[in-house]
Every structure is written in C-alpha cells, then in structure tokens.
Amino acid sequence: MLRLPILAVFLGNLFSIAAVQAADIDAASYGYPLSNPFEATIASTPPALRPELPSDEDIDQADYDIQLRPEREFELPENFWPVTKLRYRMAQQDGRAPLIFIIAGTGANYASGKTEDLKRLFYGAGYHVVQLSSPTSYDFMSAASRSATPGISRDDAEDLYRAMMAVRAQHPKLEVSDYHLTGYSLGGLQAAFVSELDERMRSFNFKRVLLLNPPVNLYTSVSNLDRLVQTRVKGIDSGTTYFEQVLEKLARYFQQEGRIDINDAMLRDFLQSDEQLSNEQLAMLIGSSFRFSSADIAFTSDLINRRGLITPPQYPITDRTSLTPFFKRALQCDFDCYMAEQLIPHWRTKNEGGSLPQLIDQVSLYALEDYLKSSSKVAVMHNADDVILGPGDIGFLRRTFGERLTLYPLGGHCGNLNYRVNSDAMLEFFRG
C-alpha cells in the first residue's frame, strides 16, 4: 500500500507540527452518552440530545426520476421496472440558496434514515438538498451504474457525477448560489473521489466537501464488518439461531412494556433493558446488516451482467418468480466473495491485470492522498471508536487532513451524526 517514507513523515511532523493538529474532542466535554461503539452504531443518539429540525410537512420536497441507462429497460427482468430510472429526492428553498448533495452509505437508498436526518439539518439551515442513493444500492446499480459492479471508487464517482449533472439539468430554474457535497460511511469515501473528479471537470466547483465516517482502507473496513458476522455468541448452537435468540428477547421486552412500538427510542430502551443484547450479539447484528447489503450487491451485479454465479443467465424471471432461492445463495457470498468472483475480475479486465494490493490502493483514500492534503475545502469528521477503522487509519487521517480532521472520542460508526454537537459542527464547517 502507498505510504510516506518514515523519514519524510518524521521531518514533516517536526517542521510543520501546527499544520497537522487534528481537532481531537475531549470525551469529558463531548457529552455523547453512549460509550459502547456497537450500541451507538445501532441506537444512534437519544432524541433529547438531537437538534430541533423541521418536519417533513415544513419542507418543500419531492421525489424525481431521471433516465441514465435506457438500455436497462431491455436488460433487466420485467419485475425490475421500478429501478430502470434513478429516483432521488430534492428539497427546495424559496429563492436563491446553496445546494448540497448527500451521498448515502453502503447499500442505502436516497430516503434512508441518516440521509433524511442530514436533509432536515441542511434544509433547516437554508440549503437546497439533493439526496442520492449509494452506488452500492440495487436501485443505483440498476439505473445509473455503467458496469453495475460497484467498488471501484473512481468509476463509482463518475457514475455519481453524471447523476448530479442530470439532476441539475432537470431543474434549470433552480437558483443556486454555490454547490456543496457530503456523504456518510462509504458515501464519504465516494464524496472524496467526486470532489477530486470535479477539480478536473469543473462542473460544480464545490465550495466545501465533508466526509463523514469514511473508510480509509476500504478493504479493511469491509473485512471488519464481515468479521462481525463470525462473532461467537453464547447460546447459539445448531438448534438455536442468532435471530431466534434476538426475537425472543424482543418478545419478552414488548411483553414487559405492554405494547409494540418500533422506533429509535424503543430500540435504545431495549438495548438498556434487562433484555439488552451482549456485545457479541450487537456485533453480529451490525455484521448481519452488512451481510444483507453484500448479498444485494452480489445478486444485482450478477443478474445485470449475466455472470451466472447466482442467477442462471437464461433463467426466466417475471414478477411472479420467487427470488428467495437466489437471495439465499447470495447471502452465502460475503464481500470477500463478491470481490473475488465479480469485482476483481471486472477490474483486471479493465486494467489488463493487477494485484489485490493495487486494487485496494486505488479504491481507498490512499489514492487521493496528495489531493486531500492540498485541498483546504475538504474536511473529515470521524470517531475514534468507529468499528470500520483499522490500524494506522487514524494516523493517515491526521497526516493527510491535519486541522481539517475532527476526531470525536465516541459514536461508533455514524451513531453520532444526529448529535447536537456534531450537527452544529457540520453547519459551522459549511458556513466557513
């Protein structure tokens, strides 16, 4: 992997120490209440500690469709017709205002919970807001991706950039003062590649770009999440599945509460009740969510490209065909499997060969190190206890972003995005 020589790092730290000081937030003054990174990742911020944001009734917003890959209408089975056009959400201010694009995280579509929270935050601060699905979501893969094989960051960024330009073209009368960009999780990594692309294309000239909890080494992050599924959980054996155990705990919790009401507050109460999950169970719940996302990616990529790894190429699929057997097969394929069977062969075909370490360097933040060091408009907010980070990742962020890195002590993976302190810091960054 690409790394600066040790001597260069030492001399850089010695002679320009002021330029590499990240904003490390002290745990005592931060005030975020969840010290368990798994719990924070799942339960997010308690409602009382979130900012006051406009409700949907107070937002002028609508969903729109754009056709970017017309050939998909003929390539995809008939029951995929809803995703042959890319759908996105736009919230508009009354009159001239800055516009911010939000890129969703792994497998998430434009209307996911975190994307909605960010929409309300920025709309309340006076921004036009455009919400985009992740290039790893089945709807983006079907409607906007040229290769339908996500994971090559520059290609994903180019697909996003085309979608952004199409969105702008669809709203010629929208008055925009300047453009901004953000993304969370994998969307944060992709925002960095989109920003670097825009430096060359100059279509938007993004004023400010914020990366929220991005992977540094993409392979490390997905490996961390994949390993969570392999966690050993007490009480799980051949006769009792993990999900049966969690459902039993939920049933007992609802019985004690006397009602069934599934929401963020309920989830947090459940995690702190007598039926609370162990760290191992929490880890497996996070890993299981990622495994479902990986299965979606593997299934959709195989289907669109007719690779025959999961769905036989000539198998007739209609709106009455059960996709369950194929999805079960896809669930047996983790992200390593997707990389080995689909991503790496596709990448090697494009590049006439290449090794796994070369691919990892090309798709991770390492590939943009020089650009990110020199671009004052790009900043990062991350958590020291984020489960997707590996050894050396925080050091890379410190060296690369310096004072443009804000490192929070708690929050897990994106669990504190809707914490008041974080929300205020985001708005402060975009306001300059």
TrEMBL record:
Keywords: Kinase, Serine/threonine-protein kinase, Signal, Transferase. One of its GO terms (molecular function) is protein serine/threonine kinase activity. It comes from the Bacteria. InterPro entries: AB_hydrolase_fold, MlaA. Residues 1-22 form the signal peptide. GO terms for cellular component: membrane. Transmembrane segments: none annotated. PANTHER family: AB HYDROLASE-1 DOMAIN-CONTAINING PROTEIN, LIPOPROTEIN VACJ-RELATED. This is Serine/threonine protein kinase.
